[in-house]
Amino acid sequence: AASFSREVSAAYAGSVADEFVLKGGNVLLGPDVEVMRAPLTGRSFETISGEDPYLGSQLVAQYVREIQKRGIIATVKHWLDNNQEIYRQTMDVEVADRTQHEVYMAPFKAAFEAGAGAVMCSYNRVYKDHACQNKKLLKQFLREDLGFEGYVVSDWGATHDATASANNGLDIEMPAGGTFLKLEELVNVNKTIKEETIDEMATHVLTSMYVTGLFDNAFQ
C-alpha cells in the first residue's frame, strides 16, 4: 500500500506467483484487502488497502490479475469488517449498508471484477451473526450485490454451525473448525442441508478451478 503504485503491486504479485508455481501451489490465501480503521490492527502490515478503499481497489486489481494469469487462485480476505485487533475474533460489527459498499466492500469488488476466484470469510460477527454463516454477507452482499461467482472459504476455526454455514453460503471449511465433518450426516440423516446445496458448493469451487486453468495446466 505504501508504494501507491499499480506497477509495484503487479510486480510483487508476480514474484509471489512465481514462487508458488515453483512450490507446486495453486491457491494463494491472499491478498488482504481490508480497509484499516485502527492503526494497531495486527494485520495492518499485510493489507494492500491501507486506510483508503480507492487505493486498495486500484492495487488489488493488478495483484489479482498477476496471480491468476499464472494459474493460481487468489483468495481475497477477510470478508468482512475484520479490521481491528482487540476482540478481532469475537466482536460484533454494525456498519451502515452505504458505508459497507462504498468503503469496506470496495476493494473486494475490484478484486472480483479482476477475476479473484475465492474469498475468505472472517472470525468476527457482523450484524449479530458470525461472518462465515452470515446470510447477508455471503448471499446478499457477496453474490447478489457484487456478483461473485467463485468460492467462499473460512478462516481457521471461524466456523460454528455447519448447517448455518452451508445453507448461508460457505463452500469450504478450513481446519480447526471441524463442523463440516458432519456434512454427510446433516444431509442424509438430519436433512438440515439439501443435496442441491452441496452441489452448489462444489460448483463454486470447480468454477474457480476451471476459470484459473487448474485442470488444463497440471503441475509438472
From TrEMBL:
Q: Which GO terms describe its biological process?
A: glucan catabolic process
Q: What class of enzyme is it?
A: hydrolase
According to UniProt, the reaction catalysed is: Hydrolysis of terminal, non-reducing beta-D-glucosyl residues with release of beta-D-glucose
Location within or outside the cell: Secreted
Which superkingdom is the protein from?
Eukaryota
Taking the first listed entry, what is the main subcellular location of this protein, grouped into a coarse class?
A: secreted
| Gene3D superfamilies, alphabetized | Glycoside hydrolase, family 3, N-terminal domain
Task: List the GO molecular function terms.
Answer: beta-glucosidase activity
Q: Reply yes or no: does the keyword Cell membrane apply.
A: no
Family annotation (InterPro entries): Cellulose_deg_GH3, GH, Glyco_hydro_3_N, Glyco_hydro_3_N_sf
Q: Which family does it belong to?
A: Belongs to the glycosyl hydrolase 3 family.
- The name on file for this protein is beta-glucosidase
Q: Which organism is it from?
A: Strombidinopsis acuminata
